[in-house]
UniProtKB/TrEMBL annotation:
Organism listed in the record: Herpetosiphon aurantiacus (strain ATCC 23779 / DSM 785 / 114-95)
InterPro entries: Lysozyme-like_dom_sf
Keyword field contains Cytoplasm: no
TM regions (residue ranges): none
Protein keywords: Signal
Extent of the signal sequence: 1-22
Name this protein carries in UniProt: Transglycosylase SLT domain-containing protein
Length: 164
């Protein structure tokens, strides 16, 4: 935890290397120094297909909330699942660290210029044809994780700049 706090302070002091203007089609740093206030959502068992596999494009907006103690475990599980669905070269821990850098794990966080969610997508980027999860709300934590895995699978890691 101490290392993470030192990293956050470092980023705050040096401005995290963000350019003066950020392209509106790419996610960027949405650093939050407080704990997430939104409660992440989970897939309810009834939403899973009979085979036990979960379709990443399923809506999760009406599902029960994850407890505050379980959101980290749930996000890590989704990151692993997304990495299997959309393989990319970085470790799952790297994706976790980018998510924490961007949003502190808050799926509904609003950053500067309309950046939204765990990985701070612009609505126009989220709605792009590259994103098979664009029919889900931009604040859907699971959809953001899977969309980011897809973006990384496609070689778009540079969208996250200094957080990566």
């Amino acid at each position: 935890m101490r290392t993470f706090v030192v990293y956050l302070l470092f980023c705050l002091l040096v401005g995290c290397g963000q350019p003066d203007q950020v392209a509106t089609t790419q996610p960027t740093l949405g650093l939050i120094l407080s704990n997430p206030t939104a409660t992440p959502v989970a897939i309810s068992p009834s939403a899973a297909p009979a085979s036990g596999a979960i379709n990443p494009t399923q809506a999760v907006a009406s599902t029960p909330s994850i407890s505050a103690d379980d959101w980290q475990s749930q996000y890590r599980a989704w990151i692993e699942e997304a990495r299997q669905t959309h393989p990319y070269s970085e470790s799952s821990e790297v994706m976790w660290n980018v998510m924490i850098c961007e949003s502190s794990g808050n799926p509904t966080i609003q950053g500067p210029g309309g950046l939204t969610g765990l990985f701070q997508y612009q609505p126009s980027t989220w709605a792009g044809t590259w994103n098979p999860y664009r029919d889900q709300p931009i604040t859907d934590a699971r959809a953001q994780i899977f969309a980011t895995a897809k973006a990384w699978h496609d070689g778009n890691q540079q969208w996250w700049g200094v957080c990566l």
